Amino acid sequence: MEGRGAYNLNSALQASGAALALPVFEQAADSIPLEDASRPIVIADYGASEGRNSLIPLSLAIRVLRKRVGPSRPICVVHTDLPANDFRSLFATIEGEPESYAGDACVFPSAIGRSFYAALFPNSFVDLGWSSYAAQWLSRSPGPAPNDIFGFRSAGPLRRAYFDQGRADWELFLTKRAAELRAGGRLVICLPSLDEAGQHPAALLLDAANATVGEMLADGVIATYERERMCIAVYPRTPAETLAPFADGGLGVGLRLISNSFSRLEDRAWIRYREDGDAPALAAKRAGFFRATFGPALASALSGDDIARRDFCDRLEAGIRRRVTDQPAEIVNRVAILSLAKY
Amino acid sequence: MEGRGAYNLNSALQASGAALALPVFEQAADSIPLEDASRPIVIADYGASEGRNSLIPLSLAIRVLRKRVGPSRPICVVHTDLPANDFRSLFATIEGEPESYAGDACVFPSAIGRSFYAALFPNSFVDLGWSSYAAQWLSRSPGPAPNDIFGFRSAGPLRRAYFDQGRADWELFLTKRAAELRAGGRLVICLPSLDEAGQHPAALLLDAANATVGEMLADGVIATYERERMCIAVYPRTPAETLAPFADGGLGVGLRLISNSFSRLEDRAWIRYREDGDAPALAAKRAGFFRATFGPALASALSGDDIARRDFCDRLEAGIRRRVTDQPAEIVNRVAILSLAKY
After folding, report:
1. pLDDT in tens, A90-101
2. Judging by DSSP bridges, how do beta strands B126-132 and B41-46 pair with one another?
3. pLDDT at residue A1, as a whole number
4. Which residues contact A244 (CB under 8 A, 6 or more apart)?
5. Which SS3 state, helix, strand or coil, does residue B265 take?
6. Closest CA of chain A from B63, distance in Å
7. In Å, how far from its chain's centre is CA B321?
8. If B180 and its partner were Cys, which of A150, A287, A318, B121 is the partner (CB 3.0–4.6 Å)?
C-alpha cells in the first residue's frame, strides 16, 4: 500500500457514500442488545484503510451507545485491514484527529492485520460491525486481463471467472461476519454499486488509467511481465448481485437483511467544475482519488523498490490528470447500503 | 521508528534475555484461572516492536493453554506498541513466520498503537501478560543531556530528574497493567538490568555511539538544534530500583511479586570473537544492535525526511562499527525477570 495518509486525503467519494449510511448505522447501534453490563461492547470496522473515513461513523455509534449504557462501560473498537495496510497512519489518525473517538477514556482502539475473508474474531464476539467501500475487493485475482487493468471489464471466460469470484467472496465475507456477530448483533455495509444494467459510472476514468498504464508499457517505464501482473482485483456488483445472498432470507449466509438502499451520489467535483470551468482542478481530484484507491494495488506488481513504486504512481496520476483535463466527464457513482442482523 | 524488519533482525540480545524468562512465562500460563469457558482467553504482549521476539514466548504460552482448554477455545493475542511502531512488519511477522502461533485457527491476533503508560484494555480484561525489553523506555524524556545522548548517565539535577521519571513510570506501568489483568491473571516482565552498583554493562558501546553523534555535529551532518533534541529516553534500573514497588508487598501497584531473578547473559558475540579474532564481525553485530534499538529514537530528532533519517542511521552504524573494531570489548548484560500476579 502507498500509505502515509494518501488514502485519508483522497477518499472523499468513499466518505460521501458512507455519509448516506450514517442514519442506518445509528439505528443499528440503537438496536443491539446490551443487557450484559459485565462485558465490553465490541465494534468492528472491516477494511479500515488509514482510518479517516471511519472516525465519523464510529464516533456516531459510540455517542448512541453512550446514551444507552453511560460513560463507563468499556467499548472496544477494532479496525481491520490487510497485513500490508498502513497501520501507522491508522493509529496516528485515531490518536491524533480532533474528530476521533479516542477522547473517550473508556474506548479502546485496536487493529487486526488479516484479510476479512478469514475469521478475524472468535465466534459471537462482535456487537456492531461497519464496513465501507471494502467488500468489493476480492480475496484473490481471477487473473489479469490482457488489455485492461480492471479484469471485471473483460469478456468471455475471464469475465465469468470474475463473476464467480465476486459471488463466492461476497458470500464468504457475509458468512464470516455472521459467525463473529453476537446474537442480535448488527452489521452495516456500504459498497460501490453498478446500475441494474451493470454499467460502471466511472468508465471513462478507468479508461484513462488503463491508457496511461499502456503508455508506460509502450515507453518501457514498466516491463511486460510487470504489466501482466497488474490487475485490480475488485468486483463492483449490480444491485441484483448485491442482494442475491438474501434471496432465501439470508439463511445461507446467516444474516437477515433489515434494510437496503441503492443511491446515486452527487458528483461534487463536477458541480464545482460546471461553476468554475477549471478542468485541471477537476482532473487533479479524479487523479488523486484514483491513485489513492488503486495505485498501491497496481504498484505492487512492480519488481522495483519504494522509489520505483512512487514514481509509477506519480506517472499514473499525471497521465490520468492529462486525460481528464482533455475530456472532463461527470461521474454518477452509486452506493449500496445494507443493514444486516445476525440470525 | 526505522521499521522494515530492522528490529526483528537485530535484537538477538533481547531474545536471549527473554529466553531465560520462558520457564517463568510457561508457569504463569499454567497457573491462570480459566474456568469460564464462555469467554476467549486474552494474552497481551506489551511493547511488541516488530513481533519477532514475541513469537516464541507467545507460542509457548499458547501450547500450555491448549493443553488446559483444548483446541477450540478462542485465544486473543494483542500486541501493543507506540502508534509509530512498524505494525506492517508486526503483522507480516505474525502471519508469515513459520514459528508463529497464527497457524492455530482459534488464535486471533491484533495490535494496539498506544503508549503502555495509558490504559490499553478495559479493566479486568487480560488473562496473561508478557513484556520484554520495553518498560525501560520512559513515558517522556526528562530532558536532553548536553554531552550525552543517554540522559540517564548525566549528573546533578538532570540525573535526579531521570531517577524520578524512572521511578514514576515504573509504578505507572505496573499500576496500569494491574488494572487490566483479571483476578488471578499473571504478568511476566523482562528488563535490562544494571548491577547493584548501577554500572551499565555496555558503557563503551554507548560511548562509541555518543562520540559518533558528536562527530556528526562537528562535521555539520546534523544541526545543533537537532543534537539538542536527541535524547534516548530510557532508564535502566538497578535490582533495588526494579524491586522497589514491591517493598510493601506490591499493594501500591496492585501486583504481587511471585518470583524475581537477575541474571548475567552470556556475550555470544564476544565468545565468537575470542575464537575467530574477527573484530569487524563483532563490531557489525554491536552496531546493528545499537542502530535497531536506538537509531529510530535518535533519528526522530531530525527535521529531514525518511532519506535523511536513514542516512543518519547509516552514519551512526558506520561510526560505531569503526570504533568497536578499534576497541573490542565484552558486554556482560543483565536481565531482570519478574513474575507478577494480580492482587
Report:
1. 999 998 888 889
2. parallel
3. 45
4. A167, A170
5. coil
6. 18
7. 23
8. B121
Q: What is the pLDDT of residue A4?
A: 61
- Work out whether the CA dihedral B207, B210, B212, B217 comes out positive or negative: negative
Q: In sequence order, what are the residues at sequence separation of 6 or more whose Cβ sits closer than 8 angstroms to the Cβ of residue B43?
A: B58, B61, B62, B75, B76, B77, B78, B126, B127, B128, B129, B130
Q: How far apart are the first and last CA of chain A?
A: 36
Residues A147, A225 contacting (CB under 8 angstroms): no
Helix H or strand E segment including B140: none
Q: Cβ A109–B112 below 8 Å, yes or no? A: yes
Taking CB atoms and an 8 Å limit, are B91 and A109 in contact across chains?
no
Asked if B114 is an interface residue toward chain A (Cβ–Cβ < 8 A), one would say yes
Angle (nearest 5°) at CA B328 between B273 and B220: 135
Chain B residues lying within 8 Å of A85, measured CB to CB: 88
B154-191 per-position pLDDT tens digit: 999 999 999 999 999 999 999 999 999 999 999 999 99
Residue with cell 536527541: B230
**Residue whose entry in the numeric block shows the C-alpha cell 529514537:** B297
pTM, 2 dp? 0.91
Q: By CA distance, what is B73's nearest residue in A?
A: A122
CB atoms within 10 A of CB A176: 19
- Which residues is A112 bridged to in the sheet? A80
In total, chain B counts a number of residues equal to 343
C-alpha cell at B304: 529531514
Examine the pLDDT at B1 and tell me if it is beyond 60.
no
Nearest by Cα to B7 from B279, B289, B325: B289
Question: How close A341 gets to chain B, by Cα (Å)?
Answer: 22
B109 in contact with chain A, both atoms CB, cutoff 8 A: yes
Q: What is the ipTM of this complex?
A: 0.88
- Average pLDDT of span A56-65: 96
> Residue A258 belongs to what H/E stretch?
strand A255-264
Task: Name which of B67, B86, B66 is nearest B77 in CA terms.
Answer: B66
What's the helix, strand, coil split of chain A in %, to 5?
A: 50, 20, 35
Judged by DSSP in three states, A287 sits in: helix
Spatial contact of A250 and A175, defined as CB atoms under 8 Å apart = no
Cα A323 from chain centroid? 25
Backbone angles phi, psi at A40, to 5 degrees: -65, 155
CA dihedral of B98, B99, B103, B107, whole degrees rounded to 10: -150
Looking at every residue in chain A, the average pLDDT score rounds to 93
Position B7 scores a pLDDT of 65
Per-residue pLDDT tens for A99-154?
889 899 999 999 999 999 999 999 999 999 999 999 999 999 998 888 899 999 99
Chain length of chain A: 343
What is residue A61's predicted lDDT score, i.e. its pLDDT? 97
